[in-house]
Design a protein that fits this description.
eleven-stranded antiparallel β-sheet; 32% helix; PknH-like extracellular domain-containing protein; signal; alpha+beta; 6 helices; single chain
């Protein structure tokens, strides 16, 4: 077992602490002190297209990140990734690096980016669409995206189950590959999608307080899109894979227009 440092605020959870502009099922933003939304018009339009698709599954409330929220997100994530938040024991030790490495988000590229979080009265949790544009001339950014996709593949292939101890609590994390029906799986470098489903539960009481998550990460040319769900255990099931695919497809199609 190895002792390492992993953030207590992973990218998928940090959004609850940040200010966003909200909208209802009609998609109209509540413009006010928290505007403007982050992102160029092209990225915002793509996020809206993805949100419109999500609404067909009953996700009819949403909040778009503001420019200030994006900067706060970057500062908090970069700080936690650099310094860690708490000592964590990881078993097997070989899973420490890929587990820490997947705690990353497209907003951290520092380029043009947009994000919308969405919810539903019938789902205990949060969905999100995150989009960032890659500067094709920025070799470091291109490499960072590819590195993240490689880390996801490594985690799924090598670490189907991880045990960790954090703040004197023992957890079991289980990771599994997802079966894509419409999006093209990424194979090596270049465009395509990688993804995984994850559950986290207290050791010895797997059904009590279990948290499920589903994450799809798609590269399409100079754009990257991450669609995720986190919350009740159902979020790790095939039903949410299908929803995530549909939302990601709508978003990438809008980026191509």
């Amino acid at each position: 077992m190895i002792r390492t440092r992993i953030s207590l605020l992973p990218a998928l959870l940090l959004s609850t602490a940040l200010a966003v502009t909200s909208c209802g099922s009609d998609g109209d933003a509540a413009e006010g002190e928290q505007s403007p939304r982050a992102g160029s018009d092209r990225l915002i339009a793509a996020a809206e297209a993805g949100m419109e698709r999500a609404s067909t599954f009953g996700f009819d409330s949403a909040g778009f990140y503001t420019e200030a929220a994006v900067e706060e997100f970057r500062e908090q994530m970069e700080g936690s990734l650099a310094d860690g938040e708490a000592d964590v024991e990881v078993d097997p030790a070989s899973c420490e690096a890929p587990l820490a490495a997947v705690d990353w988000a497209p907003l951290l590229l520092g380029s043009d980016a947009a994000r919308v979080d969405f919810g539903s009265e019938t789902f205990t949790g949060t969905g999100s669409i995150e989009i960032a544009e890659i500067d094709g001339d920025d070799g470091e950014a291109v490499a960072r995206v590819q590195e993240h996709m490689d880390h996801v593949r490594s985690l799924v292939e090598s670490c189907p189950q991880v045990q960790l101890t954090q703040l004197d609590a023992d957890y079991v994390l289980e990771f599994s590959d997802v079966e894509l029906e419409t999006l093209r799986p990424a194979d090596g470098d270049g465009d395509g999608t990688v993804g995984y489903a994850r559950t986290r539960s207290l050791a010895g009481s797997e059904e009590d307080g279990m948290i499920g998550a589903q994450i799809l990460f798609t590269r399409a040319g100079d754009d990257v899109v991450m669609v995720s769900f986190i919350g009740e255990p159902a979020a790790a099931q095939e039903e949410f894979t299908a929803m995530a695919e549909a939302v990601a497809a709508a978003t990438t199609e809008a980026l191509a227009d």
